[in-house]
Amino acid sequence: RICVITLAEAHPLLQNGKTITSINYQISANCSRLQNKVSGKSKRGAQFLTELAPLCRISSSDGEEYTIYSCIRGRLIEVNENILSNPALLQEKPSTEGYIAVVLPKFEESKSITQGLLTQKEYEEVLLKRLNSSSCN
What span is annotated as the signal peptide, if there is one (predicted)? Predict the structure, then answer.
């Protein structure tokens, strides 16, 4: 029932040999995901995220900056501080040690959230369609 937020295989940061230069969990002057302090069984103190809540900003060597959003409603359980000192983990091991954050959706919402997710095959079909439509321009 927990959601591990990672970069998708098709994310621009994982394409074309880009190098990640920095990751910043400071969302605004008053909001840092690093200040998220969770305690106890009920996860007291966890920041509540909406689908459009930014988790972090990632900068690459070509000057591009990408804001990574939660994409899911729930409590922020943890952010991966290891990627701050070793940003290459995001590219080398995006689905394991290079995860961005862990989010816990509300129990009553978790079933509807998972039902709305794409299967691996559906995701690959979406990517293929996207690739085909962009190559026609």
Answer: none
Alpha carbons within 13 angstroms on the beta-carbon side of residue 53 total: 20
Assess contact for 47 and 33: CB atoms under 8 A: yes
pLDDT tens digits, one per residue of 8-24: 888 888 887 889 999 99
Give pTM, 2 decimals.
0.82
- Over 60-97, what HEC string results? ECCCCEEEEECCCCEEEEEECCHHHHCCHHHHHCCCCC
Structural domains in the chain, CATH included, are 3-108 (2.40.50.100)
